[in-house]
Specification:
The complex is a heterodimer.
Chain A lengths: L2 E4 L13 E4 L4 H11 L3 H5 L10 E5 L2 E2 L15 E6 L5
Parallel strand pairs in A: 1-5
Antiparallel strand pairs in A: 1-2, 3-4, 3-5
Chain B lengths: L7 E6 L5 E2 L14 E5 L1 H7 L2 H5 L29 E3 L1 H7 L3 E6 L10 H14 L4 E5 L3 H13 L2 E7 L4 H8 L4 E5 L3 H14 L3 E2 L5 H6 L2 H10 L7 E5 L4 H15 L9 E7 L4 H7 L25 H11 L3 E4 L1 H15 L5 H15 L8 E6 L24 H13 L5
């Protein structure tokens, strides 16, 4: 069973409008690399020049922020869901 | 420049500077940086003078050129211009020469500073043709969206964490808003709303309307300057949830200085958080320029944002202005609420207790020098967070309607004085 990745609106032009795409990677970092293979350019949008997740991008695995897990080393298993969400204000 | 967009020029990414049209969009497509409204300051300077401002009605819209709508405001026309109270008794308690309270606990119509941001966001939503407005909220924003949407005849959906204070829930429901309670904390509500906002064609005030919404907070800073006699205070203490208000107060002072409306150029902006949700203050105290998200656990629910979207910029503002941050425990929050109430007769919500408590710490540690002047930003009303104070204030004494019984009660209390 694959891993679903929910693509935020600003990135959908790279995925041909697809809202959800699937990967089979074993970690979040590998999933980003796999996305880059399928949708060239997407990695630069998610990671800065040091390879870190950009300051205003939040990545969640099954609704948990990967900064509370193991960041890009966070392991993935079949059926997991990754959400990529821009930081938003509020209160 | 499109003359139909008032004094706005474009939306601009704060990170890379790429420009976007003035639509309902909030992040840069390239690096996800937040978009901010860029203004034509040369034109603003020609029309926004002290005399012009002073001739206008006492609402936040007297600074209209610096607020991001194209035409005249259609929602929340009477918001703002809340009292700036000289707080001599509290100044004495905290040990500072001069202290002022900017009292948005009595902002119109829903008793919090959020009426400022909502009047801008909804006025702009109307200009962009939206019929349904929505927000993710820790309570005050939901109240304000619900009320202002009702008055404007707009449909509203507000999304809140399920553990909110009853007062804040009823205060949204009464206006007929669709109140959706989410089993989770605010950061989870926000994440869901980001996904909903991408799917439905609604004006989400803190998501796709954020560039306009956030600018409304500047009016609190404009008013502080004008009410102090066209000067900035040396120190401003601001509560931090997402960190947005703090950055916008700083921006308001910068804009007034740029336009020559004030002559001062030095001010210090300090940030206040609760210890149970202190991602920004702990980063500031550790001297870091980035924060680590936390899971909130505090009675200051309106500040319970563990992943603050403007945390990075708030840290930058404090560093640039020589300001500091600190945080206070739940007990210190209650002490702060009581102190403000007993000294100044102002009943603030928990966020106000946070601000007073942190100001007390910053003054005691000398980070705010005792000989200086400071303004504390009080952003919400204590009547909305009664739960926090129940059992922590004095008790009523019940007697029958009899003069003898009252006199006897007083006599007994003289013998054994009760704690006030």
């Amino acid at each position: 069973m694959p891993i679903n990745v929910r693509i935020p609106t600003p990135l959908r032009q790279l995925t041909g409008g697809e809202e959800v795409v699937t990967v089979t990677a074993a970690t979040v970092g590998a999933a980003i690399a796999e996305l880059q293979g399928k949708f060239p350019g997407i990695k630069d949008r998610l990671l800065d020049d040091k390879g870190e997740v950009r300051r205003f991008v939040n990545v969640y695995v099954n609704e948990e922020d990967i900064r509370f897990l193991q960041n890009q080393a966070t392991p993935l298993k079949d059926g997991d869901e990754i959400s990529i969400i821009p930081a938003i204000a509020g209160g | 420049m499109d003359k139909h967009e008032g004094f706005m020029k474009a939306l601009k990414c704060r990170e890379c500077g790429r420009e976007y049209p003035l639509s309902a969009t909030h992040v840069c497509e390239f690096d996800f940086g937040p978009l901010e409204v860029a203004y034509d300051y040369d034109r603003i300077k020609q029309s926004l003078t002290r005399a012009a401002i002073e001739s206008r009605p006492r609402t936040m819209w007297r600074y209209r050129e610096l607020l991001p709508i194209a035409g005249e405001p259609t929602v929340g026309c009477q918001v703002g211009y809340t009292p700036l109270v000289k707080a001599d008794r509290l100044a004495k308690c905290l040990g500072i020469r001069e202290l002022w309270i900017k009292n948005d606990a009595v902002n119109y119509p829903t008793l919090s500073f959020k009426d400022r941001v909502v009047s801008v966001a909804l006025s702009r939503s109307q200009e962009l043709g939206f019929k349904t407005v929505a927000c993710a909220s820790t309570g005050n924003l939901a109240n304000s969206v619900a009320a202002n949407a009702a008055a404007a005849g707009l449909k509203s959906y507000v999304f809140i964490p399920s553990d909110l204070e009853l007062g804040k829930v009823v205060n949204s429901l009464v206006y007929g808003a669709n109140v959706i309670s989410i089993k989770g904390h605010y950061d989870e509500v926000n994440r869901l709303c980001a996904e909903i906002a991408g799917k439905f064609g609604w004006a989400f005030v803190n998501v796709n309307m954020r560039p306009y919404y956030a600018e409304g907070s500047k009016s609190m800073g404009f008013e502080i300057c004008e009410q102090l006699g066209w000067r900035t205070p040396q120190h401003t203490v601001v509560p931090m949830a997402s960190g947005s208000l703090l950055t916008k107060i700083h921006k308001s002072y910068q804009e007034f200085a740029k336009l020559g409306l004030i002559t001062d150029s030095a001010w210090h902006i300090h940030g206040a958080q609760a210890t149970g949700c202190n991602p920004i203050s702990s980063a500031e105290k550790a001297g870091m320029d980035f924060f680590k998200p936390v899971k909130p656990n505090t009675i200051a629910k309106s500040l319970a944002i563990g992943t603050p979207a403007d945390g990075f910029y708030a840290l930058k503002v404090m560093k640039e202005t020589g300001g500091h941050a600190d945080d206070v425990t739940d007990d210190e929050v209650r002490d702060g609420i009581r102190l403000l109430a007993e000294c100044e007769g102002i009943f603030a919500e928990t966020a106000g207790g946070v601000t007073v408590g942190v100001a007390k710490k910053l003054i005691a540690s000398g980070k705010i020098p005792a000989g200086d002047s400071a303004v504390l930003c009080i952003t919400g009303n204590g009547l909305k967070t009664l739960e926090a104070m129940v059992g922590h204030v004095g008790q009523t004494r019940e007697i029958r309607p009899s003069l003898r019984e009252f006199e006897s009660m007083l006599k007994d209390e003289e013998k054994a004085p009760v704690a006030a």
